Amino acid sequence: MTKVNKKLLINGIVQGVGFRPTVYSYAQKHRLTGWVLNASHGVEIELHGETSSIQAFIEELRLHPPKLAQIDNFLEFDSPFQQYEDFRIIESTNDPKEFLPVSPDLNVCPDCLAELFDPDDRRYRYPFINCTNCGPRFSIVRSIPYDRPNTSMSGFPLCPECDHEYHNPGNRRFHAQPVACPVCGPHIWLQEGQNVLASGDEALKESRQWLTDGRILAVKGLGGFHLVCDTNNPETVNQLRLRKKRSGKPFALMAYDLETIQKYATISEAERALLTSPQAPIVLLQLNEKGRQLAEIVAPDQNTLGFMLPYTPIHHLLLEKEPAFPEVLVMTSANISEEPIVTENQEALERMDGIADAFLLHNRLIETRIDDSVVSTFQEKSYFTRRARGYAPNPVLLIKSVPPSLASGTHLKNTFTLARDHYVFLSHHIGDLDNQETWDAYTSAMAHYQKIFRIQPELVACDLHPDYLATRYALDYATANELPLFKIQHHHAHISACLADNGWDSSEPVIGLSFDGTGYGTDGRIWGGEVFLASYHSFERYFHLQYLPLPGGEASIKKPARLALGYLSALNLFDDSMPLAPYKSLSDHEQQVVINQVQKGFNTPLNSSMGRLFDAVAALIGLYQEINYEAQNAIRLEAIADPDTSEKYPIPIDDDQILLKPLFEQIIQDLLVKQSIPTISARFHNAIVALAVDCAKRVREQKAVNTVAISGGVWQNKLLLEKTIPALKQEGFRVFWHQRIPTNDGGVSLGQLMTALAQTGI
Asked: Is the dihedral of CA 583, 625, 618, 654 positive or negative?
């Protein structure tokens, strides 16, 4: 039969996932000759053989690519006739103008896990076991194409046995770039101060003993260090809080298996799938009775625990089940509160000195620091609190090709976004840009993304707030490179991000419910309780919470007693004869200062923030009058709400303002008659649900728009989410919410970029 040549160009996440070995095996199966290589823009394949065999090969590759691959384009071309002796994997090519996505880091696979605990395997108990189906990817990449010399494994030459596996097409480690073994790969050791206590497997045994004895370890993992201790030792957990300056904030947990986690929390099928997925994130799970006892120690005020399973060989070896060993460990990022996660050995020894008692170290360099992702589920789909390891830098795909672009993000929970062609790369979680260390992490990550994805921006977008460091970065970058700069209102960006998350490709407007903490408004005031008619391109502000004062600005956010008092004073509801919690927590002098600030407007910006409303209500009903971390009061308010209460407080609308005086009057009335706090919390949540539906219906009546997009940090409140979306659907609305990126400020940079592109006419 006649033989022909075909060329295939395939891009997406197709490097570092076993794509070339799969192509090789399919070519052998269908008796084809030719070659496959990694190129800067994807995978190229040249095929020679009978037409029917080539078509069978193509069909099999389309239907059964490597399980970790994500194919974005699969192009076929006729190629000039040329015969080949066999089928080969040939050397990669590098075109500096081309690029492709990079695979995220992946959970250790079942095959490697079986070898890890097989005494007859040469990698028995080797902490860096991996193959083409698992292990480090993004955290070790220096540049593309994804080949060993372009990773932090370049300093570990392969021994003869690993080299044979690497070049053997029939081996699971064929062209697995991080492949290693005890002979040629990285190693671990346990260190106290400057003294090395043990290395190899002895280091793991010693580390386990330290944890059993109630000590705190710093453990180097995939994208950075964790601080680790036993959850059954409250004194140690409290000591970790004191040393880490993390009072009250919940700790992430790691258990060896699902059976252990189920002792403390309920696990749905969707949650089980997340926990055991290649991404292996922290999953927020509902507590059971035993879990509530544990939460008192590791996650006060929460009705969830954040659990993850071991996702690296080191974790599996560290958490091996034994009767005397702790079954649940605190596994929290190694940093001082609000600083970035530590990644380098010397950095850990210096910055974690006095926090960790000892250090379990290794000598594989981490090229990109990356935290654990935090996910919950809603309607059996992922709902992100933090998008990082396992998910970043997976791109969002666009229908239209776009010019190289940059969006710098916001101040809190920062991410940035870079785009080119059909790809939008939302960065991993950077954090709050409050200190030099996080700022350095931001600029370093920005440079790294531009390098590996070969993006030289031609337009820049940023937040409207003039004082955000991310805004200043964008301004400086745009000025230095003579590029157009687009300043995007914060809550408009939230809605645009939600639309992009849902693949919205229309210029038609939607009803945007942007319920958030803080964002700079076009009138110079602080926004956050916003109802928009919005498209990617622009927005119209239909309704907003009435403006109320923030006495002392940031001081009232950290001390919600001031906020509650300021609200009551502005609403003419202040009466110090009432036995209300904020009055009791503030001295007479402090009360007078707040009242004077409200009356004179001195250092008292006005805000329409929904997040601040939650803070004020929580303080008013007797929750925290001073908080230790962002949203602490709102989290507690959600956790205590009575699920059986259906009543709601009134929240009327006058013109474009959502009026709050009736709400506070009714709450005070309930407090004075000693209504239960869980009932008051539930009535407040129900009021916000009813408000959201009321606002959406009013906009629909005027504009005949039936699609609602919800975004903003307040929607991290699952109780609010679980009540609002069904209520909107019951009224006939089509509803969009976040599923692939966070609803909080971690998704804002994507919205900034989408709006900037729309405003250029793209």
From this structure: positive
